[in-house]
Design a protein that fits this description.
The structure holds two protein chains of two kinds. Chain A contains 25 helices and 14 strands. By secondary structure, chain A is α+β, with helices and mostly antiparallel strands. Chain B contains five helices and no strands. Classes of the chains: A alpha+beta, B mainly alpha.
Chain lengths: ~550, ~150
């Protein structure tokens, strides 16, 4: 959501608030109705170097915002360039964070200063302006960036969507305020409206339409009247990995080998890129299933935009009607439990963005063999956190006839969540860390035994993993007021070990008896942590660098 | 003047009585409508106040406003009649009919246009509004004395 700053739209703290971040010291303050940021010299230096703007002021007015429900980014105007302030307000933590540190990626600091027109404008405004990358790289000198405007979708094969192709391709200059519409507004999905407005300025034509007389061509796109495939492509103009976005109607599958976007089997793992995932789902092949099957732009809450009734099994049972009567037989779980919610098995939380795990939009079934090949957790173990891959494999084989898989001793015995959280790469650690705070998982597998595991994640080298772990720990009874700043410089070495031990000691001393014990969850029979096992696991951690592109 | 016909004075009195009566009755009806619309606001009635009902609110407000105004025009006409007869001569018989028709047709068009409507467009009842408008302007034209000189 991109908006102009006001009392109603700014969620960050601007009450003369000073904060020291890895990017420098920022002060957020008001001048009457205006919102201002005093930026660090390092930011100004970067702007000077990148855009050749001599000595930009350290006091900058916020001219635009992006984000509202989860996070918020602040844009400043410097000599016609709209630049990110380099900070992000993270709403549920109630704090400012250096912009780059809200993503699942190693290290601190976003490199360089983000310019609005270089990247963000293509999806966070209307229409989805898109320029040739060469022209939109950081420009020298002052003045607004010219953009070559291209249609968000280029359709030569589908007539109803040709209207997107009518956008002007002349380079335009942008004067602030920047674009025809901030945020995702009508034309982002309905296409350019000039023809529609012209047609319906005639009352005769309007009333002919009201009375269902005359020409059905409305001069504008109604996504609900398109096929599932076409309407989903509209969504895909933004909700796809960049290589698959926009201009090409069919995405280039080979680009999806990029681990910034997908698992090794090309299933999307960057949240918010659901279009590609949906198109790879078996449901999509039937031609009736698409984004609008579950989501509504106008009749749904703004946060997830799920249509009424689509937060349950109704979305699936429309087509899979025989399963409605045999739900328990199919799922082998109580009908009202999370295990009988289609989404939890077939769209588990194996994607990540906005500091949380999000549901994969590629409808799939749990499969331990795929687990082993890709590293991706399956829906069963993301809920049954105390169970091993071997346990899952046995049930999948017994219930659904899946072939047996070869597992080593540890995979057969030790909790998959523990293995993932201790030994997995940052993406897997983040997913399991998030699941430990997920209520259905806590109901299925207990709520306190994994505190020591979270203690390790709180000291992870990735800030996003630390953030996820902090949030999850606060869901454990007795830990709801746990104080931790995930973005403080990460502790390392002895400092880290002391911090972990402090949490574990507190948990062992003051917490209730853990609701699970055993070597499969790293605990001795007396409920204390087996430190030796955890050290061995840490030594086996996959330290491959992970970066998820959001 | 033929025997048995009402005198000019009687016709004038009758015409005035007719329009005074009609005008006050119209005022009563359309002010009452206005009170009802205010009550719908006060009671936050959804089928009047929800965002999708803005066309209805607009049309019914216009019905109230035009009906009230037309009631006043009838009362003004009743007051005007003797002056016109004294200074300009006989009024065209259609002047009276046109004002009454306008007072019925124009607000009815707005009201009907707000009962069933199409998003931003009023219902087909709105077609009565220009008709009522024509009645009104024709009646005003007949009163305005275009091309008629004052009596000496």
């Amino acid at each position: 959501m991109t908006q102009l700053p006001s009392e109603a739209t700014v969620v960050g703290n601007f009450d003369d608030h000073v904060v020291d971040l890895s990017a420098g010291t920022f002060r957020f303050y008001r001048r009457g109705e205006e919102f201002w940021i005093e930026v660090p010299e390092s930011w100004a230096d970067q702007v000077e170097r990148t855009f050749e703007i001599p000595s930009p002021s350290l006091d900058q007015q916020v001219v635009m915002l992006t984000g509202f429900h989860h996070q918020q980014v602040y844009w400043l105007e410097v000599e016609g360039h709209i630049l990110a302030a380099g900070v992000n307000w993270v709403k549920d933590f109630g704090q400012y964070v250096t912009l780059g540190e809200v993503f699942l990626k190693p290290g601190k600091n976003q490199k360089g200063v983000q310019e609005w027109t270089n990247n963000c404008v293509r999806c966070h405004s209307t229409p989805a302006w898109r320029g040739a990358p060469k022209e939109n790289k950081a420009r020298r000198g002052s003045g607004p960036a010219p953009l070559r405007v291209m249609p968000p979708l280029s359709f030569t094969e589908s007539r109803p969507l040709d209207r997107f192709g009518e956008l002007s391709t002349d380079a335009i200059s942008i004067d602030p305020p920047l674009m025809p519409e901030l945020g995702i507004s009508c034309e982002a999905c309905h296409g350019r409206a000039e023809e529609h407005i012209e047609l319906y300025s005639s009352p005769l034509r309007r009333y002919a339409k009201h009375l269902n007389l005359g020409d059905a061509d409305t001069g504008i796109i109604n996504p609900e009247k398109l096929s599932a495939e076409e309407s989903s492509r509209l969504c895909g103009s933004c909700h796809a990995p960049r290589p698959a976005m926009g201009v090409r109607p069919k995405f280039r599958d080979w680009k999806l080998k990029d681990p910034k976007y997908s698992w090794p089997d090309r299933m999307i793992r960057s949240g918010g890129r659901g279009y590609v995932a949906v198109t790879k789902s078996p449901c999509f092949a039937g031609g009736e299933f698409g984004c609008l099957t579950c989501h509504s732009m106008h009749d749904a809450p703004p946060s997830d935009q799920l249509s009424a009734g689509q937060d349950g099994n109704d979305a699936c049972i429309d087509c899979h009607s025989t399963l409605a009567a045999e739900l328990e037989k199919h799922t082998h779980h109580a009908p009202e439990s999370a295990g009988s919610l289609c989404y939890d098995c077939h769209m588990p939380h194996t994607a990540f963005n906005l500091l949380k795990a999000t549901r994969s939009h590629q409808i799939d079934s749990p499969n331990v063999a795929v687990n082993l090949e890709t590293g991706r957790p399956n829906g069963c173990n993301l809920c049954h956190l105390d169970r091993s891959l071997g346990w899952t494999a046995d049930y999948l084989s017994s219930w659904y006839g899946q072939p047996k898989v070869e597992l080593n001793e540890r995979q057969r015995v030790v909790s998959a969540a523990v293995l993932g959280a201790m030994e997995g790469d940052a993406m897997i650690r983040a997913l399991y860390g998030w699941s430990m705070g997920w209520q259905p998982a806590q109901e299925a597998s207990g709520r306190s035994w994994f505190v020591p595991v979270l203690a390790y994640l709180l000291n992870d080298s990735y800030s996003a993993v630390r953030a996820v772990a902090t949030r999850s720990l606060r869901t454990v009874p007795g830990w709801d007021d746990f104080e931790n700043d995930p973005w403080n410089p990460p502790r390392a070495g002895k400092q880290s070990k002391r911090a972990i031990r402090k949490i574990v000691d507190l948990w062992e001393r003051d917490g209730p008896a853990p609701d699970r014990t055993g070597e499969n969850v790293l605990l001795r029979k007396d409920g204390t942590l087996n430190w030796k096992s955890t050290r061995k696991m840490l030594a086996r951690r996959d330290r491959t660098e992970v970066q998820i592109s959001e | 003047m033929a025997a048995g016909e009402p005198s000019n004075d009687q016709r004038t009195t009758d015409l005035r009585a007719k329009h005074y009566g009609f005008g006050w009755k119209a005022l009563f009806v359309f002010i009452a409508l206005g009170i009802v619309l205010e009550a719908l606001h006060g009671l936050k009635v959804d089928w009047y106040l929800s965002t999708s009902m803005s066309t209805r609110r607009h049309m019914w407000t216009l019905a109230h406003a035009h009906g009230t105004l037309l009631g006043l025009i009838n009362i003004a006409f009743a007051s005007y009649v003797p002056w016109h007869i004294e200074h300009r001569g006989e009024l065209h018989p259609w002047a009276s009919r046109l004002f009454i028709l306008a007072t019925v047709v124009m607000p009815a068009g707005f009201f009907l246009g707000g009962i069933g409507f199409y998003a931003g467009d009023p219902g087909l009842g709105i077609l009565l509004v220009p008709v009522g408008g024509l009645f009104l302007i024709a009646g005003v034209y007949l009163c305005a004395g275009f091309g008629r000189k004052l009596k000496p």
